[in-house]
Specification:
With about 120 residues, the chain is α+β, with helices and mostly antiparallel strands. The protein has a single domain, classed as 2-Layer Sandwich (YaeB-like fold), CATH 3.30.2310.20. It contains three helices and six strands. Strands 1, 2, 3, 4, 5 and 6 form a six-stranded mixed beta sheet that branches. The longest helix has 19 residues. It is globular and about 45 Å long.
Amino acid sequence: MGEYYYMFYTEGNRCFAGDFIFGLSEKELGKVKYYLELLESRGPMLREPYAKKLNGNIYELRPGFGKTEIRLFYFWDGNTAWFVHGIIKKTQKTPAEALRISGERMTRYFKAKAGR
């Protein structure tokens, strides 16, 4: 196992996943922090029920607290997980809109990294 990290993707002064996380209750935030620590220790090997690969290169971190299902969407760039979006999941199926937003932010990240 290597060393793994996580970062929050920003555009301008917006930190989408970070803003979402810090809007959670203190107990929900504690659960999210625990899952982030698991991600740092296990990296891409972290699997269900903690994390799940959705489509392409988008993954979801899956902390839950009581009946609240929190979903944090991220992708890997090397040994760093980049968090791009977060939602409170209200249905069984992951909303297509959340996947679309996450994919677009991932694309913008890689374009900016390549200098395009």
